[in-house]
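Troubleshooting log. The previous structure file for this entry was overwritten by mistake, so regenerating from the original sequence record. Sequence copied from the archived sheet and checked twice against the printout by T.R.
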Amino acid sequence: FILTALQCGVVIMKKVNNQEISRGIKLNICIGIGIGELSFGVVGGVNQRIDYICFGKALEEAEQCVANFEGQYNYGIIVPQSIYSTIINEKYELVINEINDKNGFFLINI
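Regenerated output below.
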């Protein structure tokens, strides 16, 4: 699943990054990826409005990834040490252009 998550992140970044959303304003994103259990819930049902909530270790880890690089980079996929080690050990066929390490989190530009 790690490779699939990374591939999805790459596709999203290629489609979204540097898109002009308003005159002179371009959209750039960082994507944090975490591993662990997630829980989903449906909230609402009143006035034909339904919202969803998601929480768990994977979401917290993904948020920590992005928080560690906030304001420093405006593009890239950020993963924790556990995912980075898996990427290196499994020798996924990814072309990695740049890696930046900060507090056990890795910003990877693919």
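The two ends are 17 Å apart (CA to CA). Archived copy saved in two places this time.
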